[in-house]
Amino acid sequence: MDSRRLEHLIAVAEEGNFAKAAERCSLTQPALSRSIQTLEQELEVVLFDRHAKGATLTSVGRVVVEQARAVLREMRTLVRDVSLLKRHDHGHLVIGTGSFPATAILPDALATLLREHPNVSSRVQSGDSEQLLAALYREEMDFFISNVRGLPQDDALLIEILHQEEACYFVRPGHPLLNLARPRPADLLQYPLVTTRVPPQLDKEWYDACGLPPGQLPRLALEGDGIPLLNAVATKSDAILITYPSALKDKLVQQLLVPLTVTDAFKIIGQFALVRLAERTPSPAAERFISILKESLELSGMASAL
């Protein structure tokens, strides 16, 4: 059904006269009459009673006119919303994130999005890579940003590395290990280890670097997704925090935790990437946010390792 015919229908109903309606629609009267006749044939109903003074809606015609107004109103809303989406002035985003991106990668980009596009709403969902991947497959989010080391290869995914960084060891000032000239991985095992979730494929390499006998694993005293919580625990105990330096941007935290140089330490390299479904076209809002995110990483220098 042609929307123009619905407009013609409403014009005749409001003018009550084919001649006036034709002038309003910039049509000849015969062309307008043909348009209404075609609409009546499509619907298989009579919409107007024609008479010498003009045209009057039938009972069916009155119902159709009300429905036509609603349809045209929805169509105008659709066109407006698409226009807003294209200008990034409307839309909704669901972003998945791991603990490190939530602390070090996303805040600046989200702040820019809110400042430049206040009508775009966002929801951030946290989790580890497995949880985020499952949610992405269920199409519950637009994309996620997380450490992708160990993420399964899948042609259904588009994975774009945004940032790479080596994890380091941090302790409170005055920690006993700071008195050692060259602390080694085995020395770390005398103290509680706290960290974000370690990808399973790193376990064996990391444990081998600690010089443990086969089958004996170091105990992670605290493992979690909340970096601020882990930071606070490390500042108030002899725990050793294993995290990425960019997660300790806060100057107060930098005063409360100091890096611990460990001889022959196993290097834990985080590969933080944006992951989305290959066959799903990003929304305009998602495309805009991804652009903002990359610009933010460039400005902060975090994209330099790519």
From TrEMBL:
This protein's superkingdom? Answer: Bacteria
The alphabetical list of record keywords is:
DNA-binding, Transcription, Transcription regulation
Record-annotated HTH lysR-type domain positions: 1-58
MF terms in GO:
DNA binding; DNA-binding transcription factor activity
Instruction: Fetch the InterPro entries from UniProt.
Output: HTH-type_LysR_regulators, LysR_HTH_N, LysR_subst-bd, WH-like_DNA-bd_sf, WH_DNA-bd_sf
Mind naming one GO cellular-component term on file for this protein? cytosol
Q: Which Pfam families match?
A: HTH_1, LysR_substrate
Gene3D superfamilies on file? 3.40.190.290, Winged helix-like DNA-binding domain superfamily/Winged helix DNA-binding domain
Keyword check for Transcription = yes
Annotated family = Belongs to the LysR transcriptional regulatory family.
Known PANTHER family for this protein?
Answer: HTH-TYPE TRANSCRIPTIONAL REGULATOR YBHD, LYSR FAMILY TRANSCRIPTIONAL REGULATOR
Record-given protein name: LysR family transcriptional regulator
Q: Which organism is it from?
A: Noviherbaspirillum saxi
